Every structure is written in structure tokens, then in C-alpha cells.
Amino acid sequence: MRNYTKHYINGEWVTSTGSKTIDVINPATEEVMGKISSGTEEDLDKAVAAAKAAFPSFSQTSVEERIELLERICQEYEKRKDDIIEVITEELGSPVKRSNKVHYQMGLQHFKQAVEELKTFKFEEERGNTLVRKESIGVAGLITPWNFPTNQTSTKLASAFAAGSTVVLKPASNTPFAAMILAEIFEAAGLPKGVFNLVTGSGSTIGNGISSHPDIDFVSFTGSGEVGQKIMENAASTIKKVSLELGGKSPLIVLDDADIKGAAKTAVALVAGNTGQVCTAATRTLIPKGMHDEFVEAVKEVIENFPVGDPTSQDVQVGPLVDADQWERVQSYIKKGSEEGAELIAGGPGKPEGLEKGYYTKITAFTNVKNDMTIAQEEIFGPVMSILTYDNLDEAIEIANDTIYGLAGYVYGGDRDTLQKVAKGIRAGQIQVNNSKTDFSAPFGGFKQSGIGREWGDFGIEEFLEPKSIIGYYA
Fold first, then answer.
1. Beta bridge partners of 452
2. Which residues neighbour 232 within 8 Å (Cβ) at sequence distance 6 or greater?
3. What does the alpha-carbon distance between residue 161 and residue 191 come to, in Å, rounded to a whole number?
4. CA–CA dist 376, 370 (Å, integer)
């Protein structure tokens, strides 16, 4: 049983001013795996005060000092590898291999990338008679999602520390323990008191409190569009800057020269990874009409050989959904797909055979999907694939862009010129061509209702900075 019922404020683990706790459920067993404190407004005020007090000195640290700090964080992070993998497997239900190769690694790489960015980042620039400075924005409130407990948390924290910003973090209540380990890592790395503060609790109390707090200068949030709108409303009262990474309904456009089996493997992996609980999941696969039948058969075969089960098993690729509410949500969309006339070709409602305990769902695929169907327009956040067809590339791009979202997109094929043309035509913040390796220096964020602002690399650091012009400085 993991019991982290204290908050981390001003370099110390402190008891909450409230007495309520929140149970954290292991989604593979449906059993309580630990408890966290349900923080209060007073707890949040203490954390913000600590961050505000630490800001003047931390914001004036040299680039070299911040590089050394981030390097120590990387060293301590690597020491906790086994703990991080274990806790993410338990609290998220992520298969242990994925917890290692994706969750652990992505969290580490953001801190390493921040080190590299600081080596060349220009905080001052001479423009004629003017000095342009990029100064830390102040106290940042970070609200992170449950689906990537290290990746989304680490990219925000690494950028904040690199920029000289102090922070207050609210992790998701159903996957909070990876953030607790990060707090221990920062403590071991010698992060100055007050630079990092962590308060657990409900979104209604701590989340709303962060976005409306007068002493928080910037809010960085990852999560749903509905909550993102509320954060913008709250932030408007103090005119604070907001960065939002929200939902997606990402297309995968398969070209007519693509290897069909390779395309099918890619399509299933991009919708089933993390049990489909990925804002960039390629939930709409667009294929040429002439490839439809062969592609469908290939998808069926891939799904049949995509093992779902106990996340602690080395052989499993897909674990459970995060909780009962998410399971019910995914089931409702599977039902809706059939009701609206889509053809079910794999998976379907209910749990996989032999997995009655745990929030497991079947990897599901529909064909004969029209882009105005609910399953093609709304973010499901589960392993549900919609297969659509197109006659020509212009139509494919039009279908791909026919959504309120624009977070990510994927193109799979052979001809380089065509791949580049299609990639440029998709209106989304990040496009992946042919399973290219992740680039941690590349900006990440969305068009349209997928968000505002960018994370990762130097773009992420920029979000935590404010430009200042000193005119006549060189006169």
C-alpha cells in the first residue's frame, strides 16, 4: 500500500490542513493501491507562497547553475528507474515494457533535452540600440493528466526549471505516485526549497485554485477541452498566461503505395498503445478505397495477435483502462458506433475473454465509418479505430482536417514527395511520417481546439519566459 498523504511544500513533506484522503485504484485489480491527501485551499496557498518567495533568487541563477541542477536531476531520476516503472505499471495499468520504454524514458529525455537546450539558448539579444531579455515568467501552476504521469509532468517541470520559474504542481488524482517519486528525486538532487511544490487533491479545489490564484503568473494544463475552457475562464480574472494541451482526433493517412501489412501494424499500434489513452492516438485511419478489403483483413490479423492482459507480464502489450468511468465511456462509444451504422470488424463491447477483473476492454475496429459519425468526431480515449476511405489525396486531407481538433497526424507510404505534401496539408501541431523516431527538441502542441502554446525543447522553455525590451540600453 502506497500512502503519500502529505504535500511537498517549501522543501518539506507537510501534513495537510484537511483530513480527507483520496483512494488510488490499481486498474488491473480494481483494488485500492494507496491513498493521497485531498488538499485544501490553505494547502495551496502555502505552496504558492513558498514558490513566490523562492522565485527572486531562483530566477537569477545562472544558466550554468541550472544546467548543473538538471544534470543532477537526470542522475537521480536514473537511480529511481525501477521504482518509476513499477509505480506507473500499478497506478496506470501500463504494461511493464511500455512503462520502461515509453513512460520512464520520456520522462528522463525531457530533462536531458532541457540541458541541451540551455547550452545554446539565448536569454539576451542585442537589437540595434535595444537589449531584448527573456525573463522567467514567475510562479507557474502545473496541472498534469493521468495518462502520462512522467512525460507530461517532466516536460513542464524541465522547461520551468530551465527558464528559472518556480512551480506548484497538481498531479492527477488517479495516477499521482509518479509525481511523488519526482518530488523525492528533486529533493535528492538538491533543488532549492520552494522551487518545486506539490499539492494533491481534487480538480474542483486545487485545479480551480491554481488557475484563479492571484500569485500564480502562468498555468500549464494538459487534459480535456472542457476543463481547459474552465481554466481559461478562471485565469481571465487575473489576466494570467495559459498554455493548454487538450484533446485530439488524429488521422493516419495511408498512401496507395504503402505496404498494407506494415500500415495495419502501424494503425493498430497507434490506436492501442497506452490502451488508447493518448491524446495523439491515430483513431481515424484513412485508406484508398481500392485497399479497403485487404487492409481490413490485415488489421483483423494484427489485433488477434496484440496481447491484452496483466500489465505486469512481459508479454502483454495492452493493459486495462485507468478506471471504471473510463471503461464505461469507451463502452458507450463502441455501442454508439454500431448504432450509427459503422461495421464492427474486431473487438466490440465487453471485456476480453478471461479478463473479468480489471478495467480491460477489447481492441476494437470499425469500418464503413463516415466522418460525421460520433466515433469519428469525438475523442474516445480508448483503443477504438475508425477506418475511412478516400478517392484521392485532396479528399483525404479534407477528411483529415474535418474536425475541431488538430493535435497530431500521421502519414504512411513510400513516395517522399507525396508524404511531405500530405504532411504539410494536415492542420495539426505535430505530424509523424512513417514511424519516425520521437524528436524531443520538436515543438508539441495543437491547432484549433487541441490547445494553445507549445511544449518540448526550446519551445517549451519559451512558454515560461516573458520578453523585455530595454530601449537605449546601448546608447
1. 244
2. 242, 244
3. 10
4. 7
297 assigned to active site: no
Q: How many CB atoms lie within 10 A of CB 434?
A: 16
What is the distance of C-alpha 72 from the center of its chain? 24
33 CB-contact burial (10 Å; exposed 0-12 / middle 13-18 / buried 19+):
middle
Question: Residue 240 belongs to what H/E stretch?
Answer: none
Strand 384-390, strand 408-412: pairing? unpaired
Q: Which of 90, 91, 245, 455 is catalytic?
A: 245
Q: With the C-alpha atoms ordered 267, 272, 278, 283, is the resulting torsion angle positive or negative?
A: positive
Q: Can you say whether the dihedral through the CA atoms of 88, 90, 94, 97 is positive or negative?
A: positive
Give the end-to-end CA distance of the chain in Å, rounded to a whole number.
65
Q: Catalytic residue, from 90, 279, 455, 463: name it.
A: 279
Cell numbers found for residue 342? 459503422
Q: H helices within 213-366, ranges in order?
A: 225-236, 260-272, 292-304, 324-339
Interior/surface letters 176-195, b for 16+ CB within 10 angstroms, e for the rest: bbbbbbbbebbbebebbebb
How far is it, in rounded angstroms, from Cα 98 to Cα 100? 5
Mind listing the pLDDT tens digit for each residue in 384-413?
A: 999 999 999 999 999 999 999 999 999 999
Provide the CA 391 distance to its chain's centre, in angstroms: 34
Residue 298: pLDDT over 90: yes
Q: What angle do helix axes 63-79 and 177-188 make, rounded to 10 degrees?
A: 120
Main-chain phi, psi angles of 275, to 5 degrees: 55, 35
328 assigned to active site = no
What is the C-alpha separation between 18 and 21, in angstroms, rounded? Answer: 9
Q: How confident is the model at residue 475 (pLDDT cuts 50, 70, 90)?
A: confident
Radius of gyration of the chain from Cα atoms? 23
Grid cell locating 276 = 488508447
